[in-house]
Write a structure and sequence with these properties.
By secondary structure, chain A is mainly α. Chain A contains nine helices and one strand, in the order αααααβαααα. Chain B is elongated. The chains are: A mainly alpha, B mainly alpha.
Amino acid sequence: MEIVVRQQEPVATERDLILRAQAGESAAFGELVQRYMRRAYFAALGFVGSPEDARDLSQDAFARAYRARQRINPDMQFYTWFYQILRRLCFNFIRDRKLHRDKLREQKSWIVDDAAFRSHEHNPQRNIEREQTRRRVRQAIETLPEREREVLVLKEFEGLKYREIAEVVGIPIGTVMSRLYSARKHLASAIEETES
Amino acid sequence: MSRHPEEHSERAHALMMAALDGELSSAERTELEGLLAVDESLRNEWERLKTVKEVTRTMTFREPPEEVWETYWVSVYNRAERSLGWLFVSLGVIVVLGWAGWHAVDAILTETELPPLVKIAIFVGVLGGGILFFSVIREKWFTRRRDAYKEIVR
């Protein structure tokens, strides 16, 4: 009996996928989309706050990237290049959206509590207080200036290092830190308001 | 050498951020501890920022339904394909309209029964429409680019 040993297909490198996409293989670009779609969706969600708009914008950004795929430098990180398209689309969208804040108020928050950190506090009063604080912070995050929110989301929700944030946003590390500081200061004020 | 007060507070803010995010070297930690030891308002601010960090580290994105990911690439591909379709349609329409316009001009010029005044009126009318069209487009374009309040959400 012949035994066929199936070797697992090696995972294509990003460089390889870019080169294949540039050679006309749309499936290779599809693989890139599969790798980064969650990150792109959540980045857009952090900007615009609406799941439907986040999906539209992130897909639109990938469609634009696909059309411009010949301009991708295969030796650079795809996402860093792609993120520039995405954030420009998101900023344009926010600028054009007239009833931005009203729209956001109408829908569920895009931020939730991470199950791993859910409180096991037995004191109901303490639980209520914590929930109020979290709700206030969520609202405060949603109303932060876009550029501050962008950096906060990349840091807190995506877990990027300062160097990585600086690279994708295209700003110095010092600016990353000062935007984070401003954002957190806003949130600290929100917590104080809840407490008072 | 002593720092300017503004530089001093910027440095303190940067150190506090790095400390919260685990990006502080041991030398910087010592520096931050030194600053906190002598400045009460900084200590208060540090406590407030630590509370913020404690809250935000427990938050995450709301997950969309799983179907979003299942159809994601297909939607991206359709968008790219359709935009190419629109591009071709637009090119075709521009060429056809250009050709029709050229023939319309030619027909008006060679039309012998039409009084010259009417011919002139037609051209002036078309020219006026063109000027209005470009003026509106240009205004929209420039307003959009130079709007000092464009980042402000109404």
